[in-house]
User: Fold these one by one.
Assistant:
Number 1:
Amino acid sequence: MDLFLKKLIISITSRERPNEKGVFLKRIGALLEEGYSMKDALVFLSKIEKDISGKWVVSIQKGMLLGNSFHSELEKLGFPTKVCAQIYFASHYGDYGQTINRCGEQLLKELNQKKKLKSLLTYPLLLLAFLFGMLLMMRFLILPHMEVLFISFDTTTEIDSNWIVQFIYYSPQIILGSLGLLALGVLGLHNKLKKGTVIDGITFFIKLPFLGSYLKDYWTAFFFQEWGELLKNGCSFQEAILIMQKEGASRLLQETGSLLSQQMQLGQSINEALASLPFFHEEAIMVITHGESLGKLSTEMLVYASYCENELTNKMEKLMSKIQPVIFCFIALMIIAIYASLMLPIFSLMEGI
């Protein structure tokens, strides 16, 4: 069973609270920062953790006794790949407890953003569901009665003579067809991405006009933060690439490290090699060039990573503030169309009498 299916089963069968993963990592990180070893931290947590987090502790302890790393056990338990990659990097550059703590804070921050988005979308989505219910009610209850009414008046006017009524008449087929096409599209995309590399999958989404800027902020912040920490703690960029290619790293890190290694073996500089990757903004390459010229590459990478993270947060907040009005406008137009579909046939009937 592949890792995707394992994560899916865990997400379905577990009863974890939404903030469970973030709180769990913060607890471990806090203990490590206080001087605990990973073994002692897990033993302590096994005495106080309950429910799903208690099972996580037991699972991690068993895995680490078999020689597995902490980040690989987290990945098996369904923790985000980005978090596992950050912890993997931290195992090489130090600040292990601080990094785990930061990962927990990131998960809690992302959870708050999801809550905001959910609160913004809940009411509009309920209205959309109500709207679809109205369409189905008109199709199967109101339109048949109106057809009988038209026939009883022996008028030549046809009830489906305008496009709004035709839309309502075929609304079940339109709704089911749209859902079917969406499901087929998702399955086709999943199969396509599964056959290619992780980099190919990210490249596909980055090329989409709407998602490109968000994903570049996300991945630039991630890579620059981890590379900056490695360089800050004495690693060269070549050593960072070797770390990415080790067996314990995720597929994304291994593919990225392999690609960068190939480019640099051809004689390309760091910024030229990074330019071949789709993850980064153009100014990211300029940041690297400037940082190298001043001998402060690690500092500028960390600063730029923080900048990209703030940019992503601001863009997400702006996006969330725009989604709700757009949905409300769509619902308003649909309600007007439904009202018109009721009134127009009646007016036509009155003219035909």
Number 2:
Amino acid sequence: KVYTDLFNLNDEHEMGHIKLSRSADVILVAPATANIISKIAYGISDDLASTILMATNKPVLLAPAMNVRMWLNNATQRNINTLRSDGINLIGPDIGSMACGEYGEGRMSEPSEIIKYTIDFIEKINFSPLNNYSALITSGPTREMIDPVRYISNESSGKQGHAIAKAIFDLGAKTTLISGPTSIPDPVGPEIVKVKSATEMFDACESLLPTDIAVCAAAVGDYKISNASPEKIKKSGSKILIELEENPDVLSRISKRNSQRPRLVIGFAAETENLISNAEKKLKEKGCDWILANDISNGEIIGQDKNKVHFISLGEKSEWDTMSKNEVAKKLSDKIVNYFV
């Protein structure tokens, strides 16, 4: 049956738009035009489709379809970011020829791809092998204050750690993401703990123990300012001396606990030289179970959407293909499932 009217005398005695919003496992919008995307982002419900999307408590999938300039328009991209942060999943769009004769990004994915994604999505949301497990994930950079307005930090975006937290949560684990200062949206689902400094991150991790899984993906600052100024430092025409002292080593302290040690501890090694040997050394010295190592010397990893990972444990060394950080998160979470189940 096809429904078109928001208020239909034959359906509204059962509140048809509410019934429709509850009766499916997922709601798929294909094609998702710039107009319907805008309505969802702003909560506008002035017709049957937008009202169902406003009222639903089920996952929503969108397959965008529009002219390349409409897709790249700042308003559309703002709306897409809003929808992603709200937990709405996108299928495509693809790059290709369009009905208007132009070429570019905005072409709707092929129906077969949309059907496959939807079926895989339904299977995934019903698959919860980590349902009885808990996990903590660290992500993003840390900041060490020099004075109230200046700090030392690093360029970590948090994209990889956030993706891992989402992937593990989607497999059913009770997941907490401990995030340093980032500019990306928080993943929908995991509990979020916001921190700034390495010490705050370590304290947050300690407070969440015991847990089954710990993934230390944050780029934690190795040093903090031992002579930080309580007031803003003014120019004086002369040099100033900033003294550094080591921060607590979050990965090492979690890995080497005598009690309440997670059953699986995973660390990351971002290296500019001797990738494998340095990662193997870190695995041994820190006492963790697995290391994901990546070469950051070319500037193509930190802050980017793709990652190139070497997986290292005492019993395995493997090089993963270059893939999106979401795909890395999926592959890692699958290995975690195989470890426990």
Number 3:
Amino acid sequence: MNTPIATRPLKSWWGTDPLHPLDRHFARFIMELAGIEDNALFLAAALVSRATRQGHVCLDLGTVAGRPLEGISPGDNMSKYPELADWRTCLKKAAVVGAPGEYRPLILDERSRLYLFRYWEYERDVAAFIRKDNAGAGKRIDQTKLEQGLGRYFPQDPMGPDHPDWQQVAARTALTRRFCVITGGPGTGKTTTVAKLLAVLREQPDGADWHIALAAPTGKAAARLEEAIRAACDRFECPADIKTAIPIRAATVHRLLGSLPHSPYFRHDAQNPLAVDLVIVDEASMVDLALMAKLVRALPPQARLVLLGDKDQLASVEAGAVLGDICHGQPTLALGPDRDTTGDSSKP
């Protein structure tokens, strides 16, 4: 058993305590649950609490293991963070730390990432949704009608067939896959693409039966989405009955899921899913991991999800930059101002 450091402040080199009182309280609580007093456990719990407050979903122990401990002189009984192997061994012995899939307050995975359980669970659920084989999911799409509609609303690029129209590619992907991310900066045509793909969808044989929900993280973003969809519909030619059938109303994600007073839970969840076939979320970069997890849990098996946003702007306030993490180094539909853009989000 080590001498606990929970009761003495850690002073960083600029003279302030690097740990917030909430982090210290959480670390003491974890040690009480574990029934032990141990420096390694205290530090791990305090640091994962701090990491979550700072917007991270986990703490990578490898980034701090073996480094000098803030404000502790070399003459102190503990001058640096534990070495990674020793730290992992200590944590795995604690009853409050589990492996992925176990129900423990803290989760330590094989890559030495330490999570609060709920954030590990959120990340697991979002990752499982994304990784599902989504080809052919949901309602059937008439391919002939689809190609006719795409050709009409997204005409051939004047530069020729060697210059693909990425807006058309985005619309086709959104209508034929269970999950799609469309990213791009302001003015790159994301909302216009959505308005046109909704027109293509309404022209399907059963297009009128599709239940479509438009959502955004905030009320202002939802209002902007409504205005943008309405303006986009005014800019392109479309049969009057189809244009009328394109949904305009948008809600916040919280309102869509059905917020419950004084509760972190929602009316719609896995047991009471949304009655939707397609959900489109604008400004998705502002959606944190917890909210995204609750959204995908509430989607019925046949529903499609389309995320719109700029991965480089408007990060979420709470932990988990979901859109940025999805796009980081992964093939996405990145729209550019001239519509002739790369489909790889890792490129500028």
Number 4:
Amino acid sequence: MNDLLNFYNAHKMKISFTTGAILGLFLGLLVAWVIWPTSYYNATPPMLRQDFRDDYLAWVAREYVASEDVEQARARLGLEFWKESPSETLEDLAHRRGGEDAANLQTLAQALGEPAPATEPATTPEPEETSLLQRARPVLQVCGAGLVAATLAGLLYLGVSRLRRREPRPVSKRAPLSHVVVEKPTAWGEMAPPIAQFKTTYTLGDDFYDPSFSIEKETSDFMGECGVGISEAIGVGDPKKVTALEVWLFDKNDIRTITKVLMSDFAFQDEALRAKLAAKGEPVLARPGTTLTLETATLVLQARVEDMEYGQGQLPPSSFFQRITLDLGVWIKPEGEAPAAPDFATPPTI
């Protein structure tokens, strides 16, 4: 699965272009050949290719000599749509053909040169009325084809998104809080077993690393969420060279999401980079055994660095993580403890 994701990330532009081109070609052929094909009808001899036109005129002349029905010949030739003289065209073809066809063509040319017998004016049939649905059918077909293409593109995007989605890391078994006996209310350093504990590992190449975990009581009451994500990367190219991770805690009973930034030694020593990341949360130097604490109105989270290794390459030493494993433990504050007041500016008095 990781190999497939890495291949997609490395060739994302080419895959997107190729997929779009194939879908566009398929949609164009579907519309042009199946849904809305071009059709020709009621063509007259002047619209035909030279050799087809000559054959058709010779056939009409033979049929006229056999039936002597000049009106039928006029209808077959569609004389009302001719711009040039039909008699001259037939005479010219007779000189080029010769033989029996020449005699037939000359006979037809003479017949067409004579004034047409007086007949009752032909009544032009009224065009059949077409319903609104019939007139809108081509537009609906094109819209339907576009909807099918959009659905296919959506399914493709959904499939890629699901491949990108990372499953939560294994969660350690919850320790029951109600059965822990606390000898005396002490500092947070002597905590009872957490209500939730999570272990997560970032490895170089996991460019979409962003695990999140739900925090619930033993009664399945939702209390909040916590997680880890990529905060900053350095260098260029893939995979990302992650130099800082951010650990965050969300409490449903608090209006804040608390964040602290776990930084590599290089990022921690770089004043400009450290100042940039300080805007996201308090910077903490990542070392094996380092513990950082996040506290909200009703929750306390401790994140401990269990193991870590820096990557090697052309970048400065100790500048990006090859691997880092964090152990997250969450506790609920004892009831009756006053929550820390949010550090907000006092709103102006109106």
